[in-house]
Amino acid sequence: MTYLGVDYYPEHWPEQMIDEDLQGIKDMGANIIRIGEFAWHLMEKEEGAFDFSYFDRVIDKAKQHGLDVMFGTPTATFPAWLAQKHPSILSENENGNTRVFGGRRQYCFNSDKYRQYAAGITEKLVQHYKNEEAIVSWQIDNEFGHEGSDMCYCDQCHGDFHQYLENKYESVDQLNDEWGTIFWGQTYNDFSEIPIPKPTVTTHNPTLKLEWARFRSASVNGFTHQMTAIVNEHKGSHQTVTTNVSGGFFDKWFDHEENVKPMDFVSYDNYPVWGGLEKPIPPEAIAMTHDFNRGLLDQNYWIVEELMGAQGHDVIGYLPRPNQAKMWSYQAFAHGCSNMLYFRWRGMTKGAEQFCYGVVDHDNVYGRKYKEVQSLFSEIKEYDELLNAEIKSDVAVLYDYDNIWSWRSQIQSKDFDFNEELLRLYRPFYRKNTNIDVIPASRDLSTYKVVLVPVMQLMDDALASRLRTFAEEGGTVIFSYRAGLKGKDNNIRLGEVLPGPVRDLIGARVEEIESLTAAHQLELQGEGAFAEVPAHISVWRDLLVPEQAETLYSYQDQFYKEYAAVTKNTFGKGNVYYVGGGLSEEALEKIAADVTSDCGIETIESERDVEVYRRHIGGDSYLFLMNHSDKEKSYGNEKLGPFESRIVKG
Ligand code: GLA
Ligand code: ZN
């Protein structure tokens, strides 16, 4: 059975409205509500006075209306009495300012006090409802590490960071050696002397910054896993466990794959537009978020917050057009979402999120958005089995959080953005409507035909050799710039000609490099089949000297005409491309066309902004059609109105 529903906050409304709301939710075609993730105080008004009677009543009503329940453990918003009694639970920003009570998620992941109280409410809550048939799933906390809450610079964190380093390094001398603290005379005599990267003059040691990022990840994931273990220990066997991943996952200081490891499934909060944005993020950027979430546990996932109304705290922006939010829902189902809840039933009239609009607005009128959700629920219900079918891809994009954190702490080009560089290689294959997995670089590559490796500057020999084997055995690898610059210690390798550990695969060497801006676009000259395909490079450039590889594009500017910008190397039975900078779309689409045809990968030609996603069930195949534009579009005989979407056999 596919779960379809809304996030409901009964505690926000007069109790006598609940039955009417639940009936409205049921009539919309829902079979589940998510409740409770911000209601700690309601369940523990004073320390130790646990009282779940309010939600007992709500859940009884839900059952009367035939609705199941996902319950959120409320540790994202702790009670005021706890902050007053134990201010040490509050996290601190890099300037040492305490994040005061009044917002949310402002707890320190390393606060023993907070872990003690969070464990308390979580255990009591789950024990109370372990036999509750209607509660089918627990959501742990809410959007871990979102809104900057993954960073804390308090003394507790500083002390724990020292312990983390002492556990990792045999001695402070080994640390000094690995970090290169001889530079600027920063040699430490003792771990207790080591700072955390608060503001200083110039900047901190790159390896310190990487270790701090790893420590932040261990802190967030340690808390997550402690809470998850409590839920798993006390929950009913009919209840599953998940947590909701927020957008901007490549801008977070924790490894998401590690974070969700103990979960039964991943949940995602899909907001293609939020806050003051004038327009939604591009279709390929939305698609990539789904492929990322599917990749975390390598299985289909839930969306527990799907946008329907405009969203924002103090600033709001773009209003999703009629059918546009529905289209984004179809896109999510196409990419592996198997169950979906919309955020939220009705917009709140009080508090920080008055402008986070729901399915029903403050006027409580069941209007356009209500009908849009109702139509989506009635249409998608028919495809129960299809939504749960496994998605297989021939193309994978690799990412590694250590690599992402090393870029974040030294961006090298003022316009560098990891998300954009990943999308630069993802986009041309997305536009070929071929399935793409977005996966951690540590994953097995043997099932793929093409592996995309965007800006992997941090690369250990293990990854280099797995990519070598993949290419030798016939795979195609596409690297982009700065590949293999550093080891996992975030240091540059002495005496090694770049691209270091993958020079043989790439069949070219990097002679010099130059940081560019996004506006500084250098025209390139295509060779051979690329001669007629215009191209330019921006953001960064590697000046390549082909060794075994052929040149696809070369630079045209003074002094650098003899250098290659993009190369292709035949390696073993496979091919290896090197994109030596921020290459423009047309050239990348030509490469994707060559690669998909060389590798016999199924592609589907469609108009720009018409996304076509094929899914298989048994021997049948279906196409999800999504028109991302406000114009009339078509796919074959299928006419698609503005933002229209549907599933067809084919
Ligand atoms: C997030 C949170 C919700 C709410 C919405 C608003 O995703 O999980 O609690 O703040 O955003 O859009
Ligand atoms: Zn802290």
From TrEMBL:
It catalyses: Hydrolysis of terminal non-reducing beta-D-galactose residues in beta-D-galactosides. Substrate binds at residues 104, 142. It is an enzyme of class 3 (hydrolase). GO terms for biological process: galactose metabolic process. Keywords: Glycosidase, Hydrolase, Metal-binding, Zinc. It comes from the Bacteria. InterPro entries: Beta_galactosidase_C, Beta_galactosidase_Trimer, Class_I_gatase-like, GH, Glyco_hydro_42, Glyco_hydro_42_N, Glyco_hydro_b. Its EC number is 3.2.1.23. GO terms for molecular function: beta-galactosidase activity; metal ion binding. Residues 7-382 form the Glycoside hydrolase family 42 N-terminal domain. Residues 394-601 form the Beta-galactosidase trimerisation domain. Pfam families: Glyco_hydro_42 (PF02449), Glyco_hydro_42C (PF08533), Glyco_hydro_42M (PF08532). The keyword Metal-binding applies. Zn(2+) binds at residues 108, 152, 154, 157. Belongs to the glycosyl hydrolase 42 family. This is Beta-galactosidase. It comes from Halobacillus trueperi. The lineage of its organism: Bacteria, Bacillati, Bacillota, Bacilli, Bacillales.
